[in-house]
Amino acid sequence: MRQMQVEVVHYPTLKTVMAIEEVVKKADLAVSRNKIIELLPTKVMRSTLNVALDYLEKRGVILETKNGFIWTFNQSKKLAKAEQTGLEV
């Protein structure tokens, strides 16, 4: 099966990625692409937003649900230790 190559018109800057991270992190509920664009302090093209969201999802800090994006990253040292020493079922 052949995958389509999507040409990226504009890559996001680090500042843009961090702003998107902050919007999703602060949201109480899942937040849609349109809502993220609305809440960002600067204008962002949708294609640039999609590249940034894809990057954050691959890093494992956000997750796309049917209702939008949610923050999943947890910096808890107790959780990290439990993952290392825990039994996988």
> Which structural class is indicated by helix and strand composition?
mainly alpha
Q: What percent of the residues sit in helical stretches (DSSP H or I)?
A: 40-55%
> H/E order of the elements?
HHHEEH
Reported for the largest beta sheet, the result is: 2 strands, antiparallel
- CATH homologous superfamily (4th level) name: Winged helix-like DNA-binding domain superfamily/Winged helix DNA-binding domain
What's the multimeric state?
A: single chain
- Give the overall pLDDT as a whole number: 88
Secondary-structure blueprint:
Blueprint: H1 14-26, H2 33-39, H3 46-59, E1 62-65, E2 68-71, H4 77-85
Helix pairs in contact: 1-3
Q: How would you describe this structure to a colleague?
A:
The protein is mostly helical and 89 residues long. Helix content is 48%, strand content 9%. A hairpin with a 2-residue loop joins strand 1 and strand 2. It starts with 13 loop residues before the first helix and ends with a helix. The mean pLDDT is 88.
